[in-house]
Amino acid sequence: MVVYLDQNKWIELARMLHGRDATPRAKRILREFEVSRQGVHVTFPLSSVHYIEISRVSNVGRKVRLGEAMWHFSRGVTLAAYPTVVRHELEVALAKHLPQVTPGALSVLGQGHTHAFGGPPLRGVLAAFAEDVERSILTGDPRLGLPPPAFTGTTHRENFMQHLATLHQKYYDEPKELRENWLYAMSTVDILNPFNAVAAKHNLDVAAVLKGLGEAGLKQVIDDMPTRQVDMHLHREVLKNKSYVARASDLEDWGGLTVASCYCDVVVCEKHMANMLQRNSFTTKARICTDLEGALNAA
C-alpha cells in the first residue's frame, strides 16, 4: 500500500514523532505508523513537492525536525517526477492512435531526490554515500555543520496564483460553445514540453500528429491521461466557484496531489483539497482522506 501524505500531514506527524503532540490520539497514530514503517507492505513516498516545501521552512530547527520525520517514515522512497509521469501517460494515450509509439515502463516509486525530480541517479563518490546524501537533503548534516537546503523563490507560485485568479475571466470571455474546447486547449498547452519530448523520442512531427488527431482525437488523448483528468477536474471546480481565492500553496498542492491521487493507494490531505478532489462524484485511484488516524486502513 502506497500512502501519500500532504505536507501539512507530514508536519502533523513530525510533531507527534518529536513529542510536541503527545495526546492519546497522537500516540495511537504514531504507533500505527511505526508498525507500518517496520513492515514491508506500506510505503510513505516523498515527492518533489515535499522537497520544495520543506526547503521553504525558515526555522532551521523546525526544518530539521520535519526532515527527520520525513526521512524516518519514507526511508528515501520517492514518487516519480510530474514530467516523467506525464510523458509516460502521453505515450500510452498516443499509442492508441499511433502504432509507431511504444510506451516505456514507468517506475512510480524510486529512491531519492533525483527520482523525485526526474534527474539522473547519483554517481561516483556521491552514489557510494547515497543514503547520507539523501538524508542530509532533508535534515542537513550536523557532522559537517551543514543545514538542510533553503529555497525562497516564489515566481512559480505567483504565476500559478495569477493563472487561477484570471481563470474565470478568460473562460467566460470565450463563446459558450467553445469553452469546453478552451479547457482542453489549455490542458494541451500545459504539456507541450512533454509532448515535444515524446515526439522527439518517437520521431514524430508534432504539427502532423496534432492535425492527424483532430479535435476529437486530441480530446481523447487528454481524457486517457489520468493526471490531465485530475487537473481538468480541479480547474472545473475553480470555475464553478467565482469567489475562489487562489492560495500561495495551490501550486504545490495541485502538483503533488495530482500525481499522488492517480498512482498511490491512499492520499491524506487537508479538507480543502480533499473536497475539491471528490466533488461531483469525481473518483481517483487513491482513496482520499483527511485524518492520519485510520488512514492506513483506508485502502
Short description:
With 299 residues, the chain is mainly α. Helices cover 60% and strands 5% of the residues.
Describe this structure in words.
The structure is a single chain. This protein is 60% helix and 5% strand. By secondary structure, the chain is mostly helical. The protein has one domain (3-297). It has a three-stranded parallel sheet. It has a two-stranded antiparallel sheet with strand order 2-3. Helix 16 links the parallel strand 4 and strand 5. Helix 3 runs antiparallel to helix 15 (250-263), helix 5 (82-95) packs across helix 12 (192-201) and helix 11 (179-189) packs across helix 13 (206-223).
Write the layout of secondary structure elements.
Layout: E1 3-5, H1 7-17, H2 24-38, H3 48-55, H4 60-74, E2 77-79, H5 82-95, E3 109-111, H6 112-117, H7 124-128, H8 130-139, H9 155-165, H10 167-173, H11 179-189, H12 192-201, H13 206-223, H14 226-240, H15 250-263, E4 266-268, H16 271-278, E5 287-289
Parallel strand pairs: 1-4, 4-5
Antiparallel strand pairs: 2-3
Helix content: 55-70%
Number of strands: 5
- What proportion strand? 5-15%
SS summary, helix count: 16
Structural class: mainly alpha
Q: How would a textbook summarize the main sheet?
A: 3 strands, parallel
What is the overall shape?
A: globular
| Count of structural domains | 1
Kindly report the average pLDDT value.
94
Query: What's the end-to-end separation, in Å?
Result: 8 Å
Low-confidence stretches: none
How do the helices and strands follow one another from N- to C-terminus? EHHHHEHEHHHHHHHHHHEHE
Strand order of the largest sheet: 1-4-5
Please compute the radius of gyration using only Cα atoms: 20 Å
